[in-house]
Every structure is written in C-alpha cells, then in structure tokens.
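Collaborator request, handled under Task 6.
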Amino acid sequence: MVRSLCPTEEGSRQTKSVGSQEALLLLRASFSAPKVAHLLRCSPSFSHPALLEFDGLLRTALEHITNCSFADTEWLQVSLPIKDGGLGIRRVSSLALPAFLSSAAKTSSLQDRILAHSPRSDCQYFQDYLLMWLSSFGEPSHLLPFKQSFWNRPGVELDRASLEASLVIPYQ
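Structure tokens returned to the collaborator:
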C-alpha cells in the first residue's frame, strides 16, 4: 500500500491508502514512456543522460509500489511489453532511438514537399541514428518503415534474448 496525506473538509490531514495495483496503474498512466513519447519523437534525445535518470526514478517508484528490489535482469523483464512477458512499463532509454527514427521516417516525404524549393541538408541526427540502428540490427526489410513498433521490435527481441540467456533453470 502506498500512503498519502489528503486534506479533509475540516482542513486537517488524513492518511489514505492506495492499493498497489491502483498505484501501478497510476504509474503506468502518469509517468511511463507514453507521457514522454512526444519528446522522444520530436527531439534527438538518444543517449541523453536524463533518460537513464528518468528510468532510474521509474524503477525506484515501481520498487516502492511492489515493496521489493529488482535485480537488473528483473528490471529488464519488467520493462518488456506485456505481450513479451513484462509489465509494459517501458524504459524510455530503450524507446528514444525507435521513436525518433519512426517519426523522422514518417515525416520525411512531407518535409521534402514543404522544402522542395529551398536548399536544405538532411537531418544529421536522423542519418547518425539510422546508422546506429543499422549497425545494431541490420537492414530493415523495407525502406524506412513508419511504425515505431518496427523500429522497436529488434531491441525488445534483444532484451528478451538477453533475459532468457540469464536463466539458469527451465522453471525461471
């Protein structure tokens, strides 16, 4: 249970409890990756130290809600999507590169049409990030996919393979 102080009608403070499940839902809805997705899509923030700080705060909050500490492998599992066996509380540091690449790929044709008659150079961040992604995961199956899930899936698979490699017995 997470305890908070809430003012009452008389102005005094009263202790109220929020159940762990409700606190987890609030955490996912209020502070997880979807709330910073816009920033990740429109700014080249990959490898910014604040992303790791945000992930650390998220991990601490989740440990407080669940009343347990997570080893690094457990945190990796927690941060996987639900369909891959996680809690769906995604690490923003792992989403920054796929979010920016999908946004840049989606808007590149629009940018070309808008800036057709003005001299411009390609976004250097996009080129650099694309090279990073290609060196880690190889060539995409088709030219510059628009969906973030396409750019995100290889990282999720890599995290999942890393997690499965750390298992000692089949029961785990």
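The cover message to the collaborator said: "Residues 141 and 150 are 10 Å apart (CA to CA). Residues 17-165 form one domain. Please let us know whether this matches your experimental observations."
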